[in-house]
Write a structure and sequence with these properties.
Layout lengths: L4 E5 L2 E4 L8 E5 L18 E2 L12 E9 L4 E9 L2 E2 L5 E5 L5 E11 L14 H8 L6 E12 L2 E12 L2 E8 L5 E6 L6 H4 L2 E3 L1 E6 L3 E5 L7 H4 L11 E5 L17 E5 L2 E3 L1 E2 L2 E5 L8 E3 L5 E2 L2 H11 L4 H23 L17 E5 L10 E3 L4 E3 L13 H15 L7 H25 E2 L6 H6 L14 E2 L11 E2 L22 H4 L1 H12 L5 H13 L9 H11 L10 H14 L16 E3 L2 E5 L8 E7 L5 E5 L7 H4 E5 L5 E10 L4 E9 L10 E3 L8 E3 L2 E3 L6 E12 L3 E6 L7 E6 L12 E7 L4 E5 L7 E10 L11 E3 L1 E11 L9 E5 L5 E5 L13 E3 L4 E3 L5 E2 L1
Parallel strand pairs: 15-23, 16-17, 21-24, 24-26, 37-46, 40-47
Antiparallel strand pairs: 1-2, 2-13, 3-9, 4-5, 5-6, 6-7, 6-8, 8-9, 10-11, 11-12, 12-13, 14-18, 15-16, 17-27, 18-19, 19-22, 20-21, 25-26, 28-29, 30-31, 31-34, 32-33, 32-35, 35-36, 38-39, 38-41, 41-44, 42-43, 42-45, 45-47, 48-49, 49-52, 50-51
Helix pairs in contact: 5-6, 6-7, 7-10, 7-11, 10-13, 11-12, 12-13
Length: 875
């Protein structure tokens, strides 16, 4: 049948093809209070029963809550569905006040008996041939296709909705399934949502693990009933519904109110794929993971869930991955839309680039099951082992790994050195931003569970409970995090300040400076997590960043982006000042115009030291050291006190103190320079003793240089109460109480002051002892001040299989060394006494420990007469 058309507007053509007696009534709702009792509610659906004459019907007309927008009033958006397919143009909106009472309604309410206007469930003609005829023999590219209904003169008309690309121009067509007649043509990029054009539906599923509990991902308030009734055993919690909605109308899953578990439905098969995400199982990754949709598109097989949990203590790897990655991709698309509102493509050289994501679960390697990684093509999640880690597809891990993909598509910085620190640090910031996005938009019974509440506790200073600022808690068996934001060094390896950067550390550890700066921007400068993240995300996509950049160059790029982030009550200059300040707090100079002080601060467990001896003493008017524990050391030129003791100073803080120290120097002329150091003080001791298998006591005493440790009777000895002073670049001896020829000797030095010993921290590495002595030295790379040193004597090599160290058939002695730097001489304070015959006696008030083998030198009088006595007398 040919249809007559009426031109309704530019590029829009509506054709009426079917005539039937009206059975469905459409009632306008504006100001019609009398109809409010018939409206759907957020806790239920409105169902109109079908008549016997309704063909192809296995359910009634259902209203689904699509999204909720606003607060006062709050707008609930509903759409009508029949047989699981949407009814086009059926949206109605209900406005409610703060008490939940309806104050207005808009749109049209459909009610009455349902009849179908045609018998066809799908288009009965060859789609390609038919479309070619519509375009005069040309063949547009079919991008998407979906089934829907249109209300046509009181009956539901089954239609096919097509998204086409015709010579670069995108169009949407609506075709009558019975006749193939063109009902509607629209020229635009977004007239019809992916829900229709790709058969995408919101799926339900189970996720979570032993720690998180059974999470019932529920697109509707009453969905996933089987999940909520599921319980693995009497010790496990019952399943709890989790709803997630994003009221942004431009969210990529807006047609599902932002619910991110969106699947592709083909008949009774639902596949974990949509335009933004595809989820595979690495054990068979030829096709995306699929399941039988059922009536409600829910994926819940009790037996399969129980079997999976019995093996991995995770309920469903694939469902969890698809929900979490969908949420992350929606988050990024939303962020990019706000940062680059004029960008029309998803990958633009002048803006951001985001591609459809592919991911695999059960992606285990020769390194085991407890890894997650981005390989340049897929995000890969290990299965977990069920006792150290659960599935690695939890939300924080998924966000982190997808962050690597975003970096790969945008800044493209590498994975080693400074690049690696920025890369890993950025991904950790993705995780906290995504978790915040999740927390703010999640609802349902699951958000009232102990696991959810614990996960989002924000208790500043309470490191053992501040889980909101932990990374990876959701995937770890123990009540712990993999990394931390408030104080990164609390994990024992990460750094709080760039001064502690070391290639011997992992990139994750070196990335601690980004986590610390981000935390301070939020907490100290009162930025929101989302605003703070936008600065970092824009830096990654602005074109400023490049491979092998320095950390200060990175800081500059970040600071420059602050001007593009609008924050209420903060001017552009204030925003930049905030960013520059927090970056400076971790040692990153973000502005070349900033005058800073090179203070050479060093943190050694519970001691903080600084060294400004490079400054010319005569140019200093005042030195002020605010140590961060409430005490201050001040020197003023006007007080006529010696300046030299203040050029190099050490301060001991109480253990387990969060210190924010500041060193301020005022120079002649009034210029003030400042240096900042934030750190967490810890006792000067190892984090854990070594593992000793078949221990043996090889020596009962040990002499280190001139310092003796007598009466050693145990396989492990901790002698950290007394400091042993040693100088760098000098050979020292270890003396044993007997001949230990043939034994293996390892000497380790805690270079990074983290209380552990790594392979890269050895002074002697499994050397064979000859006789009763051995020699070692502290080289130039050894940091000054105190540090732990470990001496291990065994029959076999020392092992680093555990960070605590493993020794077979041997013993371990831990001591503490006070290392000196001969390149920076001690400038002594002194007193003097005038003697007869024009002589002056000088008394050294800053003697060096003789174990350091010090040399003394001085110059006296107008002619700089030299001397080398410790307490000289000169004419």
């Amino acid at each position: 049948m040919k249809c007559l058309g009426t031109l309704l507007g530019a590029g829009s053509l509506l054709l009426s093809c079917t005539q039937a007696s009206a059975t469905i009534e459409s009632h306008p709702l504006l100001n019609q209070q009398h109809l409010w009792e018939q409206l759907p509610t957020a806790n239920s659906v409105s169902i109109q029963e079908t008549t016997d004459s309704a063909r192809h019907s296995n359910s009634g007309l259902i209203y689904r809550l699509e999204k909720v927008v606003g607060e006062q009033p709050q707008y609930e958006h509903y759409s009508a569905y029949f047989q699981g397919k949407p009814v086009l143009d059926s949206t109605l909106v209900i406005a409610r006040n703060a008490k939940g009472d309806i104050v207005q309604s808009m749109g049209k309410l459909l009610r009455g008996h349902i009849e179908l206007a045609n018998n066809a469930a799908t288009l009965q003609q060859d789609l390609v041939v038919h479309i070619s005829a519509l375009y005069e023999g040309k063949q547009p590219q079919i991008e998407n296709s979906a089934q829907a209904y249109v209300l046509n003169q009181g009956k539901l008309l089954s239609v096919t909705v097509l998204q086409l690309n015709h010579e670069g121009h995108r169009e949407q067509l609506v075709l009558d399934n019975a006749t193939g007649d063109l009902m509607q043509r629209q020229s635009s990029v977004s007239f019809f949502s992916p829900t229709l054009t790709n058969n995408y539906v919101a799926g339900g599923a189970i996720g979570g693990n032993e720690k998180l509990g059974a999470i019932c991902y529920s697109p509707q308030p009453d969905s996933m009933q089987a999940c909520t009734e599921y319980r693995y055993d009497e010790y496990a919690p019952m399943g709890a519904r989790l709803h997630f909605s994003d009221t942004d109308p431009n969210a990529i899953f807006a047609q599902f109110s932002g619910f991110p578990l969106v699947v592709n439905k083909d008949g009774n098969t639902c596949r974990l794929e949509n335009p933004y995400l595809s989820t595979f199982d690495a054990r068979d990754h030829t096709q995306t993971v699929s399941y039988a949709c059922g009536a409600n598109n829910e994926n819940f097989d009790s037996a399969a869930v129980t079997q999976n949990f019995s093996t991995w203590f995770t309920y469903s790897h694939a469902s969890e991955a698809h929900f979490n990655a969908g949420l992350v991709m929606q988050f990024f698309h939303q962020q990019f839309a706000e940062l680059y509102p004029s960008q029309s493509s998803a990958c633009d050289s002048s803006g951001y680039c985001i591609k459809p994501l592919k991911q695999k679960v059960h992606s285990n390697t020769i390194y085991g099951t407890n890894r997650a990684f981005w390989d340049g093509e897929y995000v890969n999640y290990g299965s977990g082992d069920g006792y150290n880690f659960y599935s690695l597809a939890t939300l924080s891990i998924a966000a982190h790994e997808i962050g690597h993909a975003i970096n790969s598509w945008n800044a493209g910085i590498g994975s080693d050195g400074i690049d690696g620190a920025i890369n890993e640090g950025f991904s950790d910031l993705v995780a906290i931003a995504v978790m915040d996005y999740f927390e703010r938009n999640a609802s349902g019974a699951y958000t009232q569970t102990e696991a959810f509440i614990k996960q989002f506790q924000d208790q500043a200073g309470q490191y053992s409970q501040n889980r909101k600022w932990w990374f990876g808690w959701d995937a770890i068996y123990q009540d712990n995090g993999a990394r931390f934001y408030e104080l990164p060094s609390w994990d024992g390896t990460s750094i709080d300040h760039i001064a502690d950067f070391s290639l011997a550390k992992t990139e994750h550890a070196n990335g601690g400076v980004l986590r610390k700066a981000f935390y301070e921007l939020v907490k100290t400068k009162q930025w929101s997590i989302q605003d703070a993240f936008k600065v970092l995300l824009r830096a990654n996509t602005s074109g400023c960043m490049f491979p092998n950049m320095s950390m200060d160059e990175f800081g500059y790029c970040v600071a420059q982006q602050s001007e593009h982030i609008e924050i209420a009550d903060k001017s552009a200059s204030q925003r930049k000042e905030d960013v520059v300040d927090v970056l400076l707090g971790v040692g990153i100079v973000a502005d070349t115009n900033l005058s800073t002080l090179e203070a050479n601060t060093q943190v050694s467990y519970d001691e903080l030291s600084y060294d400004i001896s490079h400054l010319t003493a005569d140019t200093i008017e005042q030195i002020s050291a605010q140590w961060g524990d409430g005490t201050t050391s001040v020197w003023r030129n006007s007080d006529n006190q010696p300046v030299y003791p203040f050029l190099q100073k050490i301060h001991k803080l109480p253990a387990d103190t969060m210190a924010r120290a500041a060193i301020n120097v005022t120079l002649t002329g009034g210029e003030t320079r400042s240096a900042y150091r934030h750190f967490f003080s810890r006792p000067a001791n190892v984090n854990c003793p070594p593992y000793l298998n078949a221990p043996k006591v090889h020596t009962s005493s040990l002499k280190i240089a001139n310092h003796e440790i007598p009466s050693i009777s145990n396989d492990y000895t901790s002698a950290v109460d007394t400091r042993i002073p040693l100088a760098k670049n000098r050979l020292y001896s270890l003396t044993f109480d007997k001949d230990l020829s043939g034994k293996k000797l390892t000497v380790l030095y805690d270079m990074n002051k983290n209380g552990e010993f790594a392979y890269t921290e050895h002074l002697l590495n499994d050397v064979t002892i000859s006789g009763n002595t051995a020699s070692f030295e502290l080289n130039n790379s050894t940091p000054s001040s105190i540090a732990l040193m470990r001496i291990a004597i065994a029959d076999v090599d020392y092992s680093f299989l555990d960070s605590c160290g493993v020794v077979d058939d041997g013993q371990v002695i831990d001591v503490i060394i006070d290392a000196d730097s001969p390149d920076l001489p001690i400038i002594a304070d002194f007193t003097y006494q005038v003697l007869d015959e024009n002589r002056v006696k000088f008394t050294n008030n800053s003697p060096a420990d003789q174990a350091r083998q010090p040399n003394n030198s001085g110059h006296f009088g107008f002619n700089n007469q030299p001397g080398n006595a410790e307490n000289p007398t000169q004419r």
